[in-house]
Amino acid sequence: MRVLITGGSGFVGQALCRRLEEAGHRLLVVSRDPDRVRDRLPAGTDIRRSVLDFVDTPPEALVNLAGESIAARRWSDAQKERLIDSRVNVTRDLAMLCEQLTATQGRAPSVMVSASAMGFYGDQGERLVTEDTPPQDEFAHRLCKRWEEVAGEVATFGTRLAILRLGLVLDAGGGTLQKMLPPFKLGLGGRFGHGEQYMPWVHRQDLVSMILFLIERDDLDGPFNGSAPNPVTNAEFTRTLARHLHRPALLPVPALVLESAFGEMSRLLLTGADMRPRRLEEAGFEFRFPTLDEALADILG
Fold first, then answer.
1. What are phi and psi of 271, to 5 degrees?
2. What's the CA gap between 229 and 213, in Å, rounded?
3. Out of 46, 82, 147, 176, which could bridge 87 as a Cys pair, Cβ 3.0 to 4.6 Å?
4. Angle CA(101)–CA(104)–CA(109) in degrees, nearest 5?
5. Which H or E run includes 226?
6. What value, to the nearest 5°, has the Cα angle with vertex 224 and ends 220 and 230?
């Protein structure tokens, strides 16, 4: 199968490409700088600068992982626009590709798995969150809602759409842990604010398996919560990470300090959702790392 991946050279994309290559699929990856990312991807990967450059090599499946890191910098009005554009523009290009392939080839790709994020739900406090939970209106929700709406355009051309609302992605070499490990290894870690906010998380290998599961299961569409079945609070995450590193975690960061440093973006650290992967589990998906202990033992052990 020819699989086109946006964001294929990123933290999740690289692991996905390795798994797809091992399974014998042909990789088509979009990157603004093909030469720079070539050594991150399996040999033989077809890398082009634009989604629409693949009109002459029709993909059979699409995986949409592109988007600037939401926590890269403070959320000025200009930065909010960049965050939206980095997701919406590439996603709209995928819909345009489906349109062009329908016109020239008579059919669009059969499936698209498109990333979204737990931010779709906004701050949910202690409420248990499934795919049916009404969202709280705030910037993270509006960003994800717009992203998902544009992804929905591919369905016009008969492409089955599955949306993965991702939790924090854990693994070595990047993601959430890359920023957390240095202070924790020095014994300088601690909870954020009161620590009672939930942190939905997922091991990167389970996330890759979810994407493959959704590509292969032609009976599944709509939104899916892309997180492990056992989310934890920030305080519990902090204690568990410190225990696996054999370090104390006695230096909490007050909410006021985070709000002063990051402004509105501090909501990513101080709020959360007890998000559960109800639809994936009902469909029979099996987690290799269902608990944080198991995930951290694999990553850090």
1. -130, 170
2. 16
3. 147
4. 20
5. strand 222-226
6. 130
Nearest one of 212, 247, 207, 245 to 227, comparing CA atoms: 207
Query: By the 8 A CB rule, do 59 and 110 touch?
Result: no
Cα–Cα distances in angstroms (integers) from residue 153 to residues 3, 55, 160, 195, in the given order: 19, 18, 11, 39
Q: What is the pTM of this model?
A: 0.96
Confirm if 5 and 25 have CB atoms less than 8 A apart: no
Amino acid sitting at position 217:
R
**Starting at the edge strand that comes first in sequence, how are the strands of the sheet with 111-117 ordered?**
46-48, 26-30, 2-6, 61-64, 111-117, 160-166, 222-226
- The distance in angstroms from the start CA to the end CA of the chain is 35
- Chunked mean pLDDT (size 10), the chain, 301 residues: 97 97 97 94 96 96 95 93 96 98 96 98 96 97 98 98 98 94 95 97 98 98 98 98 95 95 94 98 98 98 89
Cα–Cα distance for residue pair 199/100, rounded to 1 Å: 40
Torsion angle (degrees, nearest 10) of CA 275, 280, 285, 287: -10
Rounded Cα distance, 32 and 64, in Å: 15
Q: What is the CA radius of gyration of the chain?
A: 19
Helices (H), the chain: 11-22, 34-37, 77-105, 139-151, 175-185, 204-216, 234-245, 255-262, 267-270, 278-282, 292-300
Structure tokens at 101: 């392939």
Report residue 21 as tokens. 């290559």
